[in-house]
């Protein structure tokens, strides 16, 4: 499922939601954040005090975003302000807990569990 959220200034946020478990991972849900490379370099240099070259090397040592997205159940673009990312995390969390509730009802289990608060977005 692809969800499109319109943000202020006519920006559109696209994210993919896949509710099937990831075959190559022991985690039933994988959430990934993506960011334009230039912005990632800027944030690393600002946050960690690294040079742009060090930031580039760090990014080069990581799995490519395309690969991460291909393995993810939920993908967030964190290009926007933290409040927008937080709203997207809360929406995805609500979708996940609703899916789990439906799965639970379908399995006719009788355990009562309360969903935890959604995780905080990290920008």
From TrEMBL:
<dbReference type="GO" id="GO:0004140">
    <property type="term" value="F:dephospho-CoA kinase activity"/>
</dbReference>
<keyword id="KW-0067">ATP-binding</keyword>
<dbReference type="GO" id="GO:0015937">
    <property type="term" value="P:coenzyme A biosynthetic process"/>
</dbReference>
<dbReference type="InterPro" id="IPR001977">
    <property type="entry name" value="Depp_CoAkinase"/>
</dbReference>
<feature type="region of interest" description="Disordered">
    <location>
        <begin position="104"/>
        <end position="123"/>
    </location>
</feature>
<keyword id="KW-0547">Nucleotide-binding</keyword>
<dbReference type="GO" id="GO:0005524">
    <property type="term" value="F:ATP binding"/>
</dbReference>
<dbReference type="InterPro" id="IPR027417">
    <property type="entry name" value="P-loop_NTPase"/>
</dbReference>
<protein>
    <recommendedName>
        <fullName>Guanylate kinase-like domain-containing protein</fullName>
    </recommendedName>
</protein>
């Amino acid at each position: 499922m692809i969800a499109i959220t319109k943000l202020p200034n006519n920006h559109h946020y696209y994210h993919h939601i896949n509710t099937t478990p990831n075959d190559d991972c022991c985690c039933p849900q994988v959430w990934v954040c993506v960011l334009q490379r230039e912005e990632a370099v800027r944030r690393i240099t600002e946050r960690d005090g690294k040079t742009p070259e060090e930031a580039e090397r760090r990014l080069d040592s990581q799995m490519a975003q395309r690969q991460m997205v291909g393995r993810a159940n939920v993908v967030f673009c964190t290009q926007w302000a933290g409040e927008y990312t937080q709203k997207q995390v809360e929406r995805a969390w609500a979708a996940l807990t609703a899916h789990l509730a439906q799965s639970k009802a379908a399995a006719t289990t009788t355990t009562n569990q309360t969903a935890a608060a959604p995780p905080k977005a990290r920008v």
